[in-house]
Every structure is written in structure tokens, then in C-alpha cells.
Amino acid sequence: MSVHLWLGFLAVTCVVALSPGPGAVLSMSIGLRHGYWHALRGILGLQTALVLQMALVFAGLGAVLAASEHAFVLLKLAGAMYLVWLGVQKWRASIGEEGQEPADAPVPGGFYRQGVLVNLGNPKAIVFIAALVPQFIDASAPRPLQFLVMVATMCSIDILVMSGYAVLASRFRRVAGSDRAVRLQNRVFGGLFISAGLLLAGTSRG
Questions:
Q1: Where are the transmembrane segments (predicted)?
Q2: Model confidence pLDDT, tens digit, residues 35-46
């Protein structure tokens, strides 16, 4: 991949990463409730899914998903239901003493798993990557090296952007620790997850 192609890919990656989506909602939700280091687990989960999506595209399976209406719909509905489920769980999370939420307490691997499932459940992301990546592939250069460069670029930018969302949200933890504030957070982020799920359910491949 030439420097010119890479700069173009970098610019597009920045625009995509900065566009708010379920990943940003997840990062802010965990950051606000549990702090950045817990949010980082979810962010790393998002990147794991992104690497898998890129691998599918390079293996040619992204084109299959883009062409198969049934596969797209099944994956889309699964992802939408998971986002709605997350939203309902967040909305209904109980409030304990000193603003603690037993239903939303940090669980080893839990936030990481959420990150993986949130990104993997979005088939439109795979279709988008399948349409985007070929425009920046240099046919005369080794594909494995280009795959590594693209994955490193996308993951690095996404980690920076999601970390920014999480850190910004975590700054409000001190003023958002009361029972009333926690309950409001649950309602807001629960509603955002449910809305994201419903929007995903209504999307098409185009």
C-alpha cells in the first residue's frame, strides 16, 4: 500500500470512527458508570470484532454476506436483538446502596464480550468494509501486509476515538454517583441501546 493510498484510508477511517454508533454508546456507558479502565475492556472487544470483520472481507466472505439477503437479515436481527436486550438490562438495572448497581457490576470478561458482540452483530459494518477496503488495495503489493496495515490503522484510530468517548464520560462520575443520577444514566443509555437496536433492525444492505 502506497503512502497516498494509506493517507486516504486513514482519512476515511477517522470519519467512520468519529461517527457515533453502538460502540460509542457502549464506551460512554461503561466509562460513566465504571471508569475508563473497565471501558477499555469493552473497547478491546470492539477491536476484536473489527479484526474478525476485516478478516472476513479479505477472505471474500464479506461479499457473500453482501449478496445474501437471508444471511444479512439473520445477522442483522441477531445484532438488533442483542442491542435491545442490552438496553432493557440497562434500563431495568437495580440501584443498591451508594449508587451501586448489582445488575451492572463489573464482571471479568463481561465488558469485553459485550464489545465483541456489539460490533459483530452489525452486518452493515461488514458490508461497508467490503465496499471500502477494495478501493485502497494495491494489486501489486502483498495482500497479507496490506491486511495488517489496514487492521492496525482501523483499530488504532477506533481505540483512540472510543477511549476519548470513555474518558470524557468518566470525568462525570463524581457528579453522577447519586441514586437519582445513576437511574437517569440507566434510562438514557438503555434508551440509546434500544434505539440503536431498532435502527439496526430497520437498515438495509444499501
A1: 43-64, 71-88, 147-168, 188-204
A2: 899 999 999 999
